[in-house]
Fold these 4 entries.
Entry 1:
Amino acid sequence: MSGNITGRILVFVLLCIAVIWAFFPILFMISSSFKPGNLIWSYPPKLIAEPTFANYQNIATLFPRFWKSFFNSVIVTALTTALTLTMAIASAFVFSRLRQPWLKVPAFLMIFVRMFPGIVVVIPLYPVFNELGWLDTVTPLVLCGAAFAVSMATLLIKTFVDDIPVDLEEAAMIDGCSRVGAFIRITLPLLTPAIAAVSLVVAIGSWNEYLFPLVFTSNDARTAPVIIAIAMSNEDGVAWGGIMAMATAYLAPPLLLVLMLHKQITNVMTMGAVKG
Amino acid sequence: MSRVQIRQAGKRYAAVEVLKGVSVDIEDGQFVVLVGPSGCGKSTLLRMIAGLEEISSGEIDIGGRVVNDLQPKDRDIAMVFQSYALYPHKTVADNMGFALRLKRVPEAEIKAKVMRAAEILSLTNLLDRYPRQLSGGQRQRVAMGRAIVRDPQVFLFDEPLSNLDAKLRVQMRAEIKELHQRLKTTTIYVTHDQVEAMTMADKIVVMRDGSIEQIGTPLELYDRPKNMFVAGFIGSPSMNFIKGTMSSPGFTTEDGIALPTPAERPASATVYGVRPEHLRLADDGIPLEVVVLEPTGSETIVLGKLGKQNITCVFRERISAQAGSIIRVRPDLQAVHLFDQNGAAIR
């Protein structure tokens, strides 16, 4: 019994260390964003001393391109997620429901393309996008982001489609649906938790994307990660308070998304735990 | 008219032929059971009728219309699946009304039809529940309700009772039969359970390895099986098959035991078939060594040895023989079946 309690305490302590390890940079960033610049590196450190919103108010002055880039990030993430999910759901339906031997070829190609490092793809695409007049627009960011995310999203969604009995679609076909109609009307609503979870993965991947906007954009279509990175390499010194405020603002949308989809994601995590 | 005619229907997956040109004629309002062991092609045939599998060769005609190239939704059929296939995110009422909603039937009419089907199947209190909140038997009823509301030309059932426990299966069997008697809709029912086939069917189609072995009424199949497969498949426990030869006094087993034979004694007979329930206790009968005795209350099942061959007997009487003791049994000569070396019945 005492061994059991000792074990539990040990697990608890280890978990606490892991949580502190994971959350320390985030907590430091958030608390620093509410401190005057001179107190951020003060010793001994204070969690929040004289909280102030000045860093947030100064973002527009210190980093005039940030809010525009923030908006670009939202647009690119929304479009990339929507495009990726549309393609991934359609592909998952094909790979799961049409058991044709030739489908092994596109399945292999999807995974094969995913194996290329991003920089290898960027080099030949740059002149192409230049020729198309797409540089410094969100178009190449959305297309490249979706192209990279679709294989993993397809694989994830396919595993969930596989778990939904095909009988349901067949029953719907007899009830009056076409094959695709049966998938849309019956299987798709049952995939909602899986789609929510995959959306989150894709959206966060796109939100954090750095390489494509760095290479394909220069001004109008720049996204927030590039602007934040540039702000950190200012020759005149780093405005840490402003940077911490920018980073905290940049953290907010994914955090909101996780909170919004929390219930659906929990459902996915417990899927298959109980026999239906 | 909802007559179903299957003409030389075949199904092939690449080099594998799973259905070898079968033909069945199902009259309007008939209850036909496709029965056979796993892998015999009965579910494939049902799915071909439903339009869920393509027809490789031959024709399927429903109500005077060849449906080979029609989508499932255009065949005017309803199907009850082994897994019930209820839509988990829809209530019972929405499950039952789904097909009508797709047809854009007015909402009031849908409600009336769903309510009528629910009353027939005792589901009125469950209409707002979700499938996960129902028991196996209730789910089964909802699946049938979904089929009923559409008022189709043909009902298709694909082993609908196999997920239920034994007691519920007997109850649902009776309910399905009663439903058919009430609606008189042509029904095609697939099962591997010969008891289900015998108790429910107007006509049974016995299948094996993608071919039809025999078509007939339950009693035709029981009394006059065409071959050893049908004879062994229909009836529970299975018919006893005793190997031997026909000689001038009668049939002699491989162990040299003489068995009483009908008046006609075809020389080509090599297998003597007698059902367990057609063996009776008789003081002057053939000796049978008791191996296992299984009293069920209503009857006693005896597993015994006739020479080296296993024999099963079912007696209405209660007997108290011990394992290893000898009982004497006599076959009912009217019910003896003789088969040639190819397994075909000799008449």
Entry 2:
Amino acid sequence: MEGIAIAMLGVALAVGLAGSGSAIGIGIVGQSACGLISEDPDKFGQTLLLQALPGTQGIYGLLAGFLIMQDIGIVGEELIELTAYQGYAYLMAALPIAIAGFSSGIYQGRVLASSINLIAKRPEELGKGIVYAVMVETYAVFALLATILMLFGIDV
Amino acid sequence: MLIDDTIYGYAVARVKALETHLLEQGQFERMINASTGEEALKVLSESGYAAALAELDDIHNFETVLADELRYVFNLVMKISPLPELIGMLALRYDIHNLKVLFKARFLGITSDLLIPVGSVELAKLENAVTEDDFLLLPEKLRRAANQIIEDFMVNRDPQIVDLILDRVLYDQLIEEARERQAPFLEGLFVRQIDLTNLKTLIRVKQMGLSRDFLSRVLLPKGTLAVEKLAAMIEEPLESLISMLDISDYADLVGEGVREWSEKGSASLLEKLSDNYITAYLREGKWVPFGVEPLVGYLWAKEIEIKNIRIVLVGKINQLPAESIRERIRDVYV
């Protein structure tokens, strides 16, 4: 039965760490955005778009956490009997998105803060600023992919 | 990420937005091509200076507009900087400038209108200190320098020591503080300013025909060019100074600026090239997303802009030919 607790640690890490990465990233972009808006309020829409981008890591983390919760029956009818081995398997599967979500959220935020500086000067280059941030996003997507493939491989 | 550098995010983004309002080379060109000073002012009123200029009744009072602008910009950057003490270091130069003006005015028995209302110490406080001979209210380093000036002047009666003592205090303090606060970019700026000041001192002392002893006393330490090497240059022809600096960063500056100075007797090209050199250095930090670099760059950009406006307006008021105004205009930061 202790398998459930270990699997839940996986859920906590996926949602918690990836969510923290997003929160920090969004926070960083928000500070920069405020600096720009205090001089040029017309750019609010553009900055909001940029600020939202590091939010995806948190969503990926929540998705991974939700998949695990569904698998082990926390969401649904009743809890499934898990061995410790199976519990650890869930924990391991959660780690890619937990780790990469945390770091990529922060670094995407830093790139986007620079993009805010970019559109302060050249609003027409918004798209390029987004492309640079999407390069960071790639690795959060890879991590989510690994997490999901690992989850599919677990027999319960 | 041991130190959270993202505290600079707000200030840097705000400065980036402000940079878009800096005057561009084209606007200076239009001011230069204006037929009169008033026309040039009109071009200037299409920029961020519009509100201040609207209240200006006489073109000859344009200095008040520039002084107000400089003070406003310093206060703004100080306010938005997460570490205002770094910006305070840049304001120290104005305290020193004002002290120089006040002391010289006192020793020469004149009043001066060259005071600049920027700096870490209030102008009234400085004025009071110098006229009353009471420096207790000044920061420690300034107080010691002031007392030293008074002592020295009592003995030697030479107002020149004011510049020498105060410049030394300024740069000693700046370098020390930059190291203490671990601000290598600022230290790089101050080291370059020391080098440029020393080069100018060398030429000036050489032209005045003063001794090597005197020169080594007045050169500032802590630059990248060794004081002994520079002092030795006073006995050499100009060419050896140029060849000594041939592989340094200052090669072009010395090659053109110093040559012109010694040939035509005018330091204005060297002054301009020195300013351009600092601008080029600060541009290296222009796109740092989190750090003090863009803030320092913006303040310098504003100082240069004000200098350029002054050059154009003074030139226009005195009806100088466009070409001679143009050649004195500094490179802009953006």
Entry 3:
Amino acid sequence: MSTLEAGDLKSARTRLLVAPKLMRRLHRRLGTTGMAAAGFVLLVAIAAVLAPLVAPYRPNTEDFLAVNATPSGAHLLGTDELGRDMLSRLIWGARTSLLGPAIVVGVATGIAVPLAAISAWFGGTVDLVISRVLDLIFAFPGLLLAILVVALYGPGLLPCAIALAIAYMPLIARVVRSGLMRERNKAYVSALDVQGVSAFAACARHLVPNVSSIIWAQVTVSFGYALVDLAALSFLGLNIQPPTADWGVMVNNETALLDGHPLQVLYPCLVIVLCVTSIAYIGNRLAGDEQGARR
Amino acid sequence: MLRYLGRQLLSMVILLLLSSVLIYGSLYLAPGSADAVLFGNHTVTPAVRHAVEAQYHLNQPFYVQYWDWLSGALQGNLGTSIAFRTPVSQRVAAAAPVTIYLVIYASILITIAGVGLGVASALGGRRLDATIMAVTNVGTSVPTFVAAILLLEFFSLKLGWFPSLGAGSGFFSRIQHLTLPAVALALWAAAYLTRVTRTSMRDELRGEHVATARARGLRNSLVIRRHVFRNALLPIVTVSGLQVAGLIAGTIIVEQAFGLNGLGQLLLTSVEQKDYATVQAVALILVGAFVVVNTLVDIAYTFLDPRIRLGLREA
């Protein structure tokens, strides 16, 4: 019994020690401002996941007795023209507003990294062909591609996210490829080759993990851009459709502006700007570290 | 040099052709495209259907239809809008001026504000530099559609300085109507160009040739103009060109926010109405403009930097 307790205590203590260590490492990479930015994004993400628990109301509960209400105890940020609680809509809106960029970045990175690895490993003609194809896709503006896809499949999160993923993929692939190229020329790669490690295993277990910091920087930066582009597509009426709560949808409310209730539009604007600024700062920090290390 | 130019133009043409195949092909495959719009819920006799399909060339194989479309587009015939039964070129011609004005207006703003603030930031004192950098920080973190909404709220609805909707007619009214949209469109790019200009100027200021010029007793303004600014111009031109290319997609957002009947708005309403002929035409024009501007920037880059020019000749 007592030994068990001692063991528990020990593991608890090490666990407590691990957390500060991780925090210190993060602090070194991101700086104090970066930690604050990461904290903010994390808070928004947690609120999005726990929306049913933390949001005071359901996003589409209408209260015709409190239409266009100003901020009060019952509605901390007021209500919109249908009496829906603004704070609750912002919290629920975080779900689609963050899920979309996650899909974009996940799909784009999932295609880009294998392509970059093939390109860097085989080089020569393979590299040339892949690079040319990527250049072609890169020349097509992402927003236009999304509009074309919506013209085909109708509006929605998935068509928009897939279109943006295709548009973002070339840039991620290009940056990761140049990182992998540098790895490819290092001595340990020939050592792996001599040991008979297959190309796939060498890339999956050694080369790609070694450029993970480059990949993470790209993922973060792309996430920020995707958030903006998807919100813009919602604003254009091509992505999330009203009455679903989404930040871009909430900004597209010119009647609120014309009727003299600007706060209903300014809150989602503010949330978007804060999220984008935070993510961009973290991304630049991660990418900047990488450049610093290279020099 | 000529060979380089040729290669650049060739890759531009290939890119344009592939984009046109993509644009035409993707909508060609669209589920129930032309039929649904043409006939709606009406049931028609096979003879009528056949006649209508022949009228819009729907009975031809894909490559024939594509070739008809492309060769028509190159001659200014963009097909017929099935939903409106009017030539698409007419609708495009009606919408294009607003977009063109908007892009030119925004480009001028980007160049003046971006280069001006960037140079001021590089040459001015520490306080001016910090202020300008803070402003650009805000500028680069506000998405275009948010900027549009904020400008609309404050300068048009609150202060009433600018009209909120429409493009206006006549030169001065148009400038007044397009000022806020152009500022919204230019904001991000101008902030970015400011940073590029500042960095580029600072890099040149540190150069040995500048110290030499100063040591020879040249006037400061001459040093700045001839030895710093001219050398710093290369990245500035590249970035501003790329920003202008990027504006083409941004106009769609700004036109929607300010209710301007430009190409972007035409594209969006056509998508909504499943008017594929118009979608194809506008998408082709926007992508074409994007690709052409990007190529021009690439070519301008080599013209501006003799080192690149000479290096290419040796290669």
Entry 4:
Amino acid sequence: MARARRGLEVNGHRRSLDGVPDDERLLDTLRGRWRLTGTKEGCRSGGCGACTVLVEGRPTLSCLTLSSEVEGSAVTTIEGIASDAVGRVVRTAFEREGALQCGYCTPGFVLALVGLLKERGARVASETLVEELSGNLCRCTGYVSIRRAAEAAREALG
Amino acid sequence: MIRPDAREKLSGEAVYGTDLAVERMLYGAFVPSPVPNGVVRRLDLGPARRVPGVVAAVGPDELDRLCPKHDLERPLFPKVAVSYYGQPLAAVAAESPAAARAAVRAVVLEVDAAPPLVDVEELYPAWPEASARGDARTVAHVLARDGDLVEAFARADLVHEETYRTSGVHQVAIEPHACVAEVADGRWSVTTTTQTPFGVREDVSDLLGIPPEKVVVTGTWVGGGFGGKGSSFLEPYALLLAAAAGRPVRLALSYREEFQLGRTTLPMVVRLETAVRDGAITGRRVRLLLDSGASLPGRDFATGYAIAFLLGPYRVGAFEMEGYAIRTNKPPFGPHRAPLAPQCAFALESHTDSLARRLGIDPVEFRLRHVWREGDTTPLGLRVGPFGLAEALERARALRDRWRADGSGSGRGLGVACGFWSTGTGAGGEARLRLGPEGLAIVEGEREIGSGSVVGGLVDVAVRVTGLPPTAVRVVYENTATAPYDTGVFGSRTVGALGQAVAKAAASLVRTLADRLGSRAPVSLEVKGGRVVVVSGRLRRSLEALLTPEERRAGGLVATGKHYGRSGPIDERRVVDGTFYGYQDFTATVALAEVAVDKETGQVSATRVAEFLDVGVALNPALVTAQVEGGVAMGLGTALTEEMLWRDDGRLGNPGLLDYRVPTITEVPPLTVELLEGHKGAGPFGAKGVGEPPIIPVPAAVANALADATGARVTELPLSPERVARALKPL
Amino acid sequence: MGFELLRPATVPQAVALASAAAPGELAVLAGGTDLLLDVDRGLVAPRRVLSLARLPWHSHRWAKGGLTVGSAEPLRNLELDPRLARRLPGLHDAIRAVGSVALRERATLGGNVVRAAPASDLLPILLAYDAVVDVVGPEGRRSVALDALLARSREPALGHGELVASVAIPTTADSVYRWQRVRPANDVSQVGVAVVRSTERPYWRVALGGVPSRPLRLHDVERELARARPTREELGRAAAVAGASAPFVSDKRASEPYRRRVVALLLTRSVEQLLARATPKAG
């Protein structure tokens, strides 16, 4: 069904969805088509959170989201996180707390945390924040430093 | 200090194996075996080649044709016998992933299925009383003994006998395997996410029969290794496809394939018998039946080295250890962070605890009576060097008693367990340093896998030798054609062994500069105004002034260093059969776990964990602590939730992250990490390897805490709710 | 290979598209978190996928009698509404048990109803609430009890061309959803028990997940819990009935006897929890 499409606004820039098949996942459009490979491909089944991006500011699994389904939306990936005020705070917290090792889960964690802090605000209980990060798997850190980073970001914004 | 790789990884700029893409790249896919055991009757790739967009299809015939000198014992594709479900029988390359999938479906494949062997105990129902030897499925047998075990058992006050079982566990690096290969102008090039660029080069050379100098391997950032990216896997297949297609080929695994094809820890069964007289261990017999998957005879590495972990870091008097590795219809056994050591420690340390309780002795006190001390000799005849186990145990006991006193509530339990590891694997490497006016470059073929051993550890070593600030030292990555040789980032060896090579190269730089300065006093380096300055006492010269014109043109003064670790020798008189390893330079670790148990559902949760690690010297305490934190979390997964579930039909029942459960942030409790210095190791400045040891004692500590809380001894990993519920109250 | 995504902007258009499709040709995508997994695994291969994204079903609203949830409303929107935990605590429990936050940003209540998965964490609590599903189709609108809609496993009793528009959940005195899993976070439940307390008969409404075929109301258990404040013995009997009567089987997640033990336990704990919440603490 040929039709005009509204495209996506990715990290503040308009991107056309022309030529994107209807069944293409946002993950593949970002990585394969636009070479925004900072969004990571992990399990592709909603089990690891590595592909988390923000759609309209909210954490979303790009592996289980059709690009066509979110047309017209604003998408934020790790490449665009520096132009977001909360994003800068979270990135600094990850850096200072050493909350990464191999780095593969890191973009997903950063986006998830940015989204949660936006959704719930800095007054969110640490317990809630930690619980809501449980969809993002990290195999390297044991999450200790990630907890510290989440806490530091929360306090910096509070 | 901010990790040197943090900015690149936090901006999304870091390129991992999965992110690779080059011009004219094709997409590869495997043609998987539809059965776990059987015989290939017909493989016709013709229809696959006719699928639109398909450029190449390769099977056994193409392997023979394109790589006539390939390894006949380990062909990439089996000609006849299929060994596991999903085993690659052929591969295709196409213009798109969808076309590649269509080609796989188009292959005409006829395979006669045979019943698979899934459970090693099914094959040897009478083991351990009857031998498990003599069958074609035995890929390894090891046996060693010393002392009069018959006498020890006959004179014992007590012989404590138990059987333990452990499950298959997967590395679950979040990044799947992926590479891009190209064959052009006689060069077989592959860019890949690997712990061992040079290991891949050697494997590819052996498997495809290509001279190593024609194989060029380039590493990428690695999204987690844990042993799973420790040798070649996809690379030879991708290269074969690229050779057939005449174009670059990307080959990557789906996460489902990660599980189905993954070379990882497989189940094992352990029988332990310990003789005690007057409260002391006088003899021990251990027997191991290891599921080796589709490992080939002579290719098993695990049995002879793992079995020593069952005797433990203890003085046990007379002993006998015998192990079998059995070929089953699963992918070949592969390394996974401290291969089999957590499983062996689970068995042995559970056994030690239950024995101590039976004797009415505090389990920590009982261990302290038996642990190796510096100067002791191991069962294989190796001398124990500086070893912090007794100190770690003392500290763990003190903390356990504090935790006990601060009121662990009802349903809580506390457990302690020991682990030990060798970081002197003998695997060696070379380093090349280039000191230029602006700083020091460490030239490496290895890539950082996350532990920080490359971007942090090697830098720390160079910093300590030269006096330069860390910001003036960087790692420069080159491919295997130009980088100095090293065996890889595995075995907790990077800082210990390659770090020694870096230390030697750095020392040589400093010596050269001292000579040029004409100084007898020690020389160190500083950075002033962005330029390197050579300092000796009151003498100060800019580095630039000390370089020759050739060196200035080449970017600096170059120095190299080599280090090949030592291993063995073991006391061969004690070896009856098979291969044992003389790994030494022991490190010690003790875990203390507190658990809460729901006695009805059987749910066990760790409520706090402490680990005490003998690190020799902590060159970078933040990075070392992070290794312990990650190891403990992974150990909690092995302890509580992780289990590969093979069905009777030989297929994996849970090939995904929803049913194979690694710990999330909510399953990892507060951790206490204590690094023990003072028992210096053989690494630079006395450092010991720290990547693997932290995981080792964790499952056992959790099991011992569970026993403390409930009185129930669960003898099989993981301690999942149903298993625990059954142990507490039969269903 | 692949599918075409249909994104109608009005309900009549959506119904027309759904009605025009041949059986098996079309799948409905509310959030897609389950459907797209099935597509990836090759379990379904629809040629056309009907998206609900542009329909006016992307909201939830509270009224005097309860909550109405549009079938394309993401679960995350519900849990972020502070009224949910106060008014329908059992639904809040159940939503928090579904996948991760980022998954709940796409997953929907409507999708759960239409997919009718036996392991769904949402269906037991909806059954216990006596949720009513609003359906639109070529013949117009109709309301149907969720229990009736879930007649068969994975195959809701919808007519050709019918779409789930919304789910209506009456508010009740109190409710709870409890589950048992190997890994507490982000896992599939081995057993799920939903209990709703009502101020009128039946005082207790109980439903169960993790059973094959489909999530079930346990009417025989409800009969044992006949009184607003059941005695310990009555609760014990009800738990025994729950354990004995549920049609459990053994699978890779848990064995049948384990499930029986756990369902009895979760029922007991749920009822005790609701009773404790119903009794204002002295002092």
